[in-house]
Design goal:
Strand order of the largest sheet: 2-3-1-4
CATH topology: Alpha-Beta Plaits
Helix content: 40-55%
Shape: rod-shaped
Number of domains: 1
Largest sheet: 4 strands, antiparallel
CATH class: Alpha Beta
Distance between the termini: 59 Å
Bound molecules: copper (II) ion
Length: 110
């Protein structure tokens, strides 16, 4: 009898773990922010900005436009913030300013 209960409990724990694992990615909050980037003077500047922003833990994707002088960054807001991402670019000589945080239209434009 107790063996049966132990087995049942073990199964429930395992099921709970599996459900938790399946839900974890859905719970991570993916957001996008748009930044205005200063000091980009040639075509290789966006590469430096991109690398600087990508080095921030929690940043998932960075798209830098030299023409628009801006960056669109996809990040996990449980691990980083737009301020931390802007600081990474600023430290590398390209002061960044948050223009929009999580605007729905960014998803449609990309
Ligand atoms: Cu340059």
């Amino acid at each position: 009898m107790t063996k049966w209960i132990a087995k049942m409990a073990q199964t429930l724990v395992l099921a709970g773990l599996l459900i938790g694992l399946a839900l974890a990615p859905a719970l991570a909050k993916e957001r996008k922010a748009r930044f205005a980037i200063a000091n980009m003077t040639c075509a290789s500047c966006p590469v430096i900005v991109k690398r600087a922003m990508e080095s921030v833990d929690g940043v998932m994707a960075v798209s830098v436009s030299y023409e628009e002088k801006e960056a669109v960054v996809t990040y996990d807001d449980t691990r980083t913030s737009p301020e931390a991402i802007a600081e990474a670019s600023t430290k590398h000589g390209y002061p960044a300013r948050v223009v929009e945080d999580n605007p729905s239209q960014i998803d449609k434009n990309q």
